[in-house]
Prior knowledge:
With about 230 residues, this protein is α+β, with helices and mostly antiparallel strands. The protein has helices at about 50-60, 125-130, 145-155; strands spanning about 1-5, 15-20, 25-30, 45-50, 65-70, 75-80, 95-100, 105-110, 110-120, 135, 165-170, 180, 210, 220, 225-230. The strands form three sheets. A seven-stranded antiparallel β-sheet has the order 1-2-3-7-5-6-4, covered by helices on one side. A four-stranded antiparallel β-sheet has the order 8-9-15-10. Strand 2 and strand 3 form a beta hairpin.
Amino acid sequence: MHVKFIDLCDVYFCIFSIHEEAFESLIFKTLPSDIPSTESPDYVFQHASSSMEECAVLCTKYSSCNSAYLHQSTCIGLSSLSPDSSHPATVGIYTKQTEACQGSKFLEYKDMCIMVSELALSWYEAKQYCEDVGGHLIVLDSEKKNNSTREFIKTYYKGSFNGFYVGASDLAIEGKWEWIIPSAANYFNFYGNQPNNVHIKNPTFPADCAAVHTDGTLFDDYCGQKQAFICEI
Length: 233
């Protein structure tokens, strides 16, 4: 088995792939710089290594290894996406992904391929942005997917934003909430008295677009409000 770097590096990311039949669908992607360090990373292994290529091969041998990096000639494998800030890597953090999740800022996390955007856009602009990068606003139409997304933003974006736009609205018919994907299940984890069709900052504006709190619950918001959002492929 060997690892070959692919000439797909730009200002956002670089990937390389494992070339062996058993690992044809695996790639290693540099972790986007806007993903912060975790407070308590989960270490899978530590092994002497002199190259990132060898380190990546080691990571493929552990199903629980989701990312790897070199630190002082030691390959460190993690089940989390990033190390803690007190243990910086001498090279970039590389995350183990499948070929289906190759977008520069998309990351595979518990069977999802998602991207949390730091841009503050209206719901309409966010929807278009996600489509322009080959995906769509995330659809949280199951308890499992909702919980995985909550875990992701709580771990890596805790305290960064109050909410993130998702792909649901009642723009077509007031009170009838729908996901932007027609085949999505009719599951909406709205918080308490939500949706109430009231925008907190501007009560006279209708709240027809959904956003998710860091606790995983949905609330309705004014579609023109500019805020962060989550895309998925």
